[in-house]
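We treat protein structure as text, and this decision shapes the records that our systems exchange. The tokens are whole numbers drawn from a learned vocabulary of local backbone shapes. Below, we set out a record of this kind in full and without editing:
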Amino acid sequence: MSKIACIPAILSLALSACAVGPPPQLTPVGDVIPAGVSLEGRWKLRDGAAEAERRIRRAEYRSAGGRSGADGPSVYVFLRTGDRLKITQTPYALFVSFDRSVVEEYRFREHRLVSVGPIEADRASGWMNGKYVIQTLDNEGALLEETYAPEAGGDVLARTISVVYDDEEILSLRQVYDRID
């Protein structure tokens, strides 16, 4: 094959490598606080903290292609867990304290760029169907979704966590907290 005949094939290969399309983006979610719904309070995890941490680390390892320290989704740096939560709810935001050390602020109907050191992600959050939904999308296209929902007349808080990467659910976790105040 002549050098000139190879040029169209090389150009086609180069263009197809560049035609990845725009990165996925989030849109604002939710509405106003549903009437009578409050997540405010102090909460204690019923059980399974160690198992939850193992499942999160296993999912992180799996989504990095089974290689420790390998490049993969960075969405896990935005995932916080704790045995005890303190939630403060204002008319405009939730403040969630995990084990009295890390406090996360979630503004109702927010859509903003969040960062941990040099790692950035797109975040959207808001109220949907009586639950507070937080979506965090990293630059690899991995989506972390967390929900907080009151149950049992407000004496129980259910938290769900999922990570979807490459159209596969890598992590699905449900944590149940009991009110302690």
Q: What stands out?
A: Helices lie at 3-18, 49-63. The beta strands are 41-45, 84-89, 93-98, 102-107, 110-116, 119-128, 131-138, 143-151, 156-165, 168-179. The CA atoms of residues 47 and 108 lie 29 Å apart.
